[in-house]
Amino acid sequence: MHTHRQDRAVPLKSIRFGLVPQALLAPLHLPSAPLHQDAPQDEYSAAPQYPPILDTSPVSKRRRKQEEWHQKSKVELMGSMWVFLGHSTVQKGFGIRRGSNSGHRERQSEMLTTPLPPPQRVTTCHQTPHRGAEDDGAQHASLLRALVLPPPDDRPTLLGTPFAQFATRTHLQRELPEGYYGEVWQEAEAAADRVAGQVEQLISLNYNTQLSRCVVGGVVDLKPRIEAYWILGSLPPDNLLKKTRRGLPWTKLMEDDPMERPIQGYSTPTLGLRVCEGLPEVVGRGEGLAAAGEVPGNDLDPRSFMFKFKHRHATTVTGSWPSEGKQYGHLFLHTLDHEGRHADFYGSHNLPDALVHKAVVACFTQAHAHASYLGFGPVTELTYPLVQQSAFTDGRRWNTAIYQLNTCALHSEKPVDNPHNNILWLSEEEELFEGVDGDGVKGLNTSLLTSLLAMYLKKGIPNPDPTPYLALKHVANHPAPFEYREDFHKAYLRLSSNRPKHRLKPELYLWEKIYKVDFKTRPYDAPRRFFEPHYAQKDPGQERLDEHHTPYIPKSLRLESEKKVRYKPRINTEHLYKYD
Amino acid sequence: MGLCQAQLITNTLTRPALPQAVTDHAAAAAAANTSPDLDERVKEAILHAHLLDSYQRRLPRVLDVVNNQAGSSRWTTASRKTLNYQLLLLLDQVEGCGLERQLVEDSSTTLMLPHGNRLMQMRHDAGYLLSSPDPLPPMATQGEVLAASEGEDMPDLYPLSPFSNCRARDTYPTEECYAVDSPHLYPHTIFMHHNQPRMPHTEDVFKGMSLLYAFSHAAAYAKLVQKHSLGDLDKPITVQVVHINGPQYHLGVFQLNTLNLAPSAADKPVRNLFWTQEWETLFDSCKFKAGRGVLEGYNPKVFSLLRGLHAQG
């Protein structure tokens, strides 16, 4: 039995050899309660609740890490779609070195450090870069720097339409949905009667039709710049990737697994009309065509369809920077300028197919860009459908289209295994008039005029929660310091412009490949290049945009209290209230 | 070239303010405008055109030693014609008389006219040309025109000639055209988008340009569409001009009374008339501050003047 002897010190004289008193072995202070503690009662339950059994294979582990990042990208914690856009796109780059601001460096007087505000309860924004399925040294694996660019939407390619449909998961319907304009049809007919005369005048003067002047309450953009990027999975792996996978023991077994690539899409409408409320859905997001529409499959590399790799920042722009107000794209007018070039290259018999290609790419890009502004995006799936209208015309021939975006996250296996698909309703070609001669316009097609007016007059429906994943609607509302918001905003605009960089991309010269990589015959060269292992080696593809030197503050512009602060402190992008 | 030079080239007399009809309507519109909604919509249009339009391009390198505008970024969203278009839409909705007018973008007008013993050619591209099925009423009656022509003197640039900075060419294209080739439409308003990031000109030069553009369009219409001979016009042609550079708006009304640009002192000279005022600033600054667009110093007078111009005819 073990007794407590803590209060009685044993004199040294009484220690005999070989016999150590119990008191000397026991600790001096023992707790009076037993060593284990009972858990709080609410943690006990009748049936044992085991944590989920996780698959410990490398593929599953990687998948779980990706899912975690996707959840973080849901922007509830990121605060605003600005931050989301910024943090998803500013992760990688070749860095912004000091002095390389395109020759534009502001005076430091406006940017001196101010005393830090008291720490507030702030939501953190993680900048973990999204890793693709292959990120082990493949030269163009840097996610957002190496984009697969489709040809711009005004250059459709031959036989590229099925791939365009696969890449955007779009089902094509060859006529407009019935009854979608039912409630505005009478209004449109009345308007058509009123404007028919002016339309005839317009046509006879060979103008672009100015129907937009009839719409009240919308904002008209002339030639808006619309770009969107998304990550396309289920692509067959290319040879370079296969070679990389063969070379590493933990990726050998997944040599033939599908890969995913980021894709940057463009849309070049001549006119865009934006309103306050989005259009109502044509079909429910989980039923009918939206769930069971046919989408072509794909076995080929995108480069077979004239897609090109290019290093550029991924950009998402809807024709205007994010702001409150009228943001839902209502109608986009496109011209048929691509026809001349396409007919020269591929023949005029391919023009109808070219129109479908252009329509699919342009409509998806427009809708996806707007979905990104609403907080959804390449990794965050929509919670409600987005509908937009488009028209493709050369003044006389018109094709109208309605596009319903049901799914915008197309990474991993989603292009193939997805409960939703997007739908494009594209009407047959119709002529607005037959011809113009000395007497005026011949054969004005009033039914087409009515349907065009119905497209303008179609009203949107209010959405009580259009941005479920955005906590703050605007970066200006974010509680970060003013200085950070200002810098972030400028950096975002600078990145979106995709202006040329001062530094060239790191390049492995052919002589280096021969003498330093394949046949290492230069032992006296110090290994300092990016592909050679050394103490400061950094993979250029993993370089982050916040890894840069901050500007120098001249002595005359430093604060009195901070004469020793030579460089502008850099705000830690993860913890916005700390400085590095 | 300055206003005096343009006056001598176009045989024009100037007035220091816009015509009464325009200013009256502008004042009435401003007084009756109790809806702040309209101002908000104009501000929204300004913010959109100057800040929120995501068009980004590299501006040309302009070395302006005089004004020393070094240091500003060359990558900006230059305000294109978007603002003007938005304002035109608003004007149509507010004034309600514009539904029959036609708008042409990027029109080009070329005209050749004799000036004394010289032949002069003008080639002017307007950003927007608004044409109307009804002509603008003349702002000054025949009597007023004759009185002004006799009573007032033209500016004197002696020893300079008004053509001192014009280039003489031996070979030139002889095609002439007016932008809108239709006998049913009369010119109403010309919108010129200067849109230079750094304005190298003075206000006087700005005004001179407005006068030249107004003259070339009115004269081209008279000569090419109405097929008028080179002399005094029976019915004067009135044209309005709005010259824009960023926030600066210069408004003018031009009345073409004669195509005889260098009448000799013996004849009773008939002059053209140009009503104009100093340029007005629509806003002081429109910038991003920590991600939010901020518009400062909005001047509602400009929009009411535009309404005054739009309501004519």
Automatic annotation (TrEMBL), chain A:
The keyword Ribosomal protein applies. It comes from Chionoecetes opilio (Atlantic snow crab). Residues 35-72, 98-135 are annotated as: Disordered. The keyword Metal-binding does not apply. It is found in: Mitochondrion. This is 28S ribosomal protein S30, mitochondrial. One of its GO terms (cellular component) is mitochondrial large ribosomal subunit. Keywords: Mitochondrion, Ribonucleoprotein, Ribosomal protein. Its main location: mitochondrion. One of its GO terms (molecular function) is structural constituent of ribosome. It comes from the Eukaryota. PANTHER family: LARGE RIBOSOMAL SUBUNIT PROTEIN ML65, MITOCHONDRIAL 28S RIBOSOMAL PROTEIN S30/P52 PRO-APOTOTIC PROTEIN. GO terms for biological process: translation.
UniProtKB/TrEMBL annotation, chain B:
It is found in: Mitochondrion. GO terms for molecular function: structural constituent of ribosome. InterPro entries: mtLSU_mL37 (IPR052482), Ribosomal_mL37/mL65 (IPR010793). Its main location: mitochondrion. Pfam families: PDCD9 (PF07147). One of its GO terms (biological process) is translation. Keywords: Mitochondrion, Ribonucleoprotein, Ribosomal protein, Transit peptide. GO terms for cellular component: mitochondrion; ribonucleoprotein complex; ribosome. It comes from the Eukaryota. Belongs to the mitochondrion-specific ribosomal protein mL37 family. This is Large ribosomal subunit protein mL37.
